[in-house]
Here is the input.
Amino acid sequence: MNQPLTPNSFRAGPDEEGRFGIFGGRFVAETLMPLILDLQDHWNAAKADPEFKRELDGLNATYTGRPSPLYFAERLTEKLGGAKVYFKRDELNHTGSHKINNCLGQILLARKMSKTRIIAETGAGQHGVATATVCARFGLPCVVYMGATDVERQAPNVFRMKLLGAEVIPVTAGHGTLKDAMNEALRDWVTNVDSTYYLIGTAAGPHPYPELVRELQSVIGKEAKEQMQAAEGRLPDMLVAAVGGGSNAIGLFHPFLDDREVSIVGVEAGGKGLDGEEHCASLTAGSPGVLHGNRTYLLQNSDGQIKEGHSISAGLDYPGIGPEHSWLKESGRVEYVPIMDTEALEAFQLLTRTEGIIPALEPAHALAEVVKRAPKMGKDQIILMNLCGRGDKDVHTAAKHLGVEM
Amino acid sequence: MTTRIEDRFARLRDEGRPALVSFIMGGDPDHETSLGIMKALPEAGADIIELGMPFSDPMADGPAIQKAGLRALKGGASLQKTIDIVKAFRETDTETPVILMGYFNPIYIYGVERFIPAALEAGVDGLIVVDLPPEMDGELCLPALAAGLNFIRLATPTTDDKRLPAVLKNTSGFVYYVSITGITGAAAPDANKVAAAVGRIKNHTDLPVCVGFGVRTAEQAAEIGKGANGVVVGSAIVSAIETSLENGAASGTTVEAAAGVVRELAGGVRGLKA
Here is the structure.
């Protein structure tokens, strides 16, 4: 009775109110509402503007290095002894992750809106670095809010942002992590409404951000679809990607959502296990709530107070998730599973040794799920995983967890 | 609709002065002290009380109110306990309008259909929910209005004439004009600009207009109060509560610290009496 009807398309959302089923929406203070409506108008115009597309495609090709390669992981496939494993190598992008795809699109939009100042939030610092990079490229002042705890954990990225000319503001409010940085970015935006563009880093926040970020990241899935056709003459059997806020995952998944023969798996940060408090598995262990402008699955207590997440990967360390993922979970189109810190760390080492690729700890979570699934699948089957970031930033964290002094 | 807000503004009209709307955080620094502060406010000169519903992620609030919320949560506050404070307050005060102010998630998790009757039964007169713009009226505003709870909307400097009618459409009780683009307790507003903005809003509505965000002193309250039906003060009061604490806990002076600020501010708005 309560089973939701299967929609004709899984790619139709959001509706005009920015909803994916009950998820999404525009839960923001009145001060921001006119700005969000303005952003929506500009985004709608940009989507239909061939000049915007031409400029973005050009930057993607010559500045980021797109298309990113599709890579057949031959030795890993042999080692796992089952399905063929392919990687979409967004870790080879300029700045080392998929984050740049979103930042380039949004900064073009900010310029169209005649905004003169860019703000962003960052957790691990990858989005902060990508934002600082595009701001340097276009000569716009950039302010990055980063939890004080993360500033300490991610010192090399803080230095990178400063080199790129950004001002990094450590956030001590709350508990000093990504969600507090996002609160502080929203407070800045509400104060500097005329000059400032808020460059959100993931497919979350008030409408139109979830759709906007998804569309900019969908370049990943569109390329992968063509590349897979060229390599194998067919679609993969399974997609796997890590989800924190969920932008790399939605970027890969979205172009495939209506290809029902492709099963899709999103991998959440299981941290130290779902029994305790130290994880970030909002879809597996959370419940629907309202935070940062949208309704989505959140880690929260019975009074609706938001909890602090934990993950070995600072990029997955967020107690929410993009609203479209919440909807894809409830509609049953995508399966979401947790991977523990220890499993991610093992996968991190495995890829490094078998393929000579040091992955970021975020896609290492996705890889740990591939390691579980590939051996159970036939050798004629194909898994496509989004290798969305490289691991240079994580070598210190990995060393610490592996008991190595650096 | 409960009528305490309407009655209060009618009386103030007779007195010829603006209202002093005082904000405190429910459960700050602890349940009993918070109730004690609330009980002391009307006598100190608060005409309307806004009681904050603590939330872990108050994205429109400055440091003073953020800290008040965290103190309250650390002291064991919850939405239920905030409602309980109102209920206890109503045992001795049946006239002062009480408005719950905060963010949507705790209400959403409590359950809208359960929250509205609980708030009404406790003696709540109105709601201010920062992250529910008119676009989200179906969530809480419409069912609250239907049940007889006032829904007080925020209008801001970014709310232009084109948007004002949509913002005012389902507003009742009064309109809360946010005097600056920014967070609570930030820069002081310019009284002339505020008076112009209030005038602009009054072209669209007969409801009283109260002004808040950034008002800290009796002089500012008097200045802003000249051009509005009420002045909202929050950060100055919760800052005084913070200063009065000893090792993070309420001291013997905490209730008086809050009441003292309100008394002084009340002097500001009452000095305006013709």
